[in-house]
């Protein structure tokens, strides 16, 4: 069972999210928060598998809350506003996914499940812009960062950027799924990245994969 905490300052939005998620047999909503500070408190106390976090909230905004929860909770960022500052701010803070609030309910459910599995999901309407502009808006790491990776780790990184799951990567490279997980962990540690979403961004930024892909 996937446990979810919903954080949004609008009661009607929380209710709508709860109805959609609670209708799924493998998802249960374990808490709700109306501001960023309460979201942090509940997330640290209840340890939900996924936190669905609004960006604009009183007392403490969603991006600050995501940053505070980095390393302890997997967060899906939600916003009504299609603004670069929210998209990039949420991802840099450590969000594992990003959706606009008018996304199809099925996409919301898919995102929660993907994030629970350790993957990332970005709203398709902003993915192209993310790929096209991240290099210009982000500080470029030095070439020595990539040199820390082994050839196999780079190969696994490319497959992650193509959107493959660990099982699919294992099949493609004829290695064990546990070995894939180890390589992914090494990539995250060596490059100082937090999630698979950040691996994808990094891979596109450094030309490890072509920029014509719109899927994470």
Q: Which CATH architecture of the largest domain is right? A: 3-Layer(aba) Sandwich
CATH topology of the largest domain, which one?
Rossmann fold
Spatial extent as radius of gyration:
17 Å
**Helical content band:** 40-55%
Number of helices: 11
- Say how many strands there are: 6
CATH class of the largest domain: Alpha Beta
Q: What gross morphology would you assign?
A: globular
Q: How can the largest sheet be summarized?
A: 6 strands, parallel
Number of domains: 2
Write down the overall mean pLDDT: 86
Percentage of β-strand residues: 5-15%
GO biological process, one term: regulation of DNA-templated transcription
Keywords: DNA-binding, Phosphoprotein, Transcription, Transcription regulation
Pfam family, one: GerE
GO molecular function: DNA binding
Question: What secondary-structure arrangement, pairings included, does this model have?
Answer:
Layout: E1 2-7, H1 11-22, E2 27-33, H2 36-46, E3 50-54, H3 62-69, E4 74-79, H4 84-93, E5 97-100, H5 105-116, E6 121-122, H6 124-137, H7 143-147, H8 151-161, H9 166-173, H10 177-191, H11 196-205
Parallel strand pairs: 1-2, 1-3, 3-4, 4-5, 5-6
Helix pairs in contact: 2-3, 3-4, 8-10, 8-11, 9-10
Domain HTH luxR-type: 142-207
GO molecular function, one term: DNA binding
GO biological process, one term: regulation of DNA-templated transcription
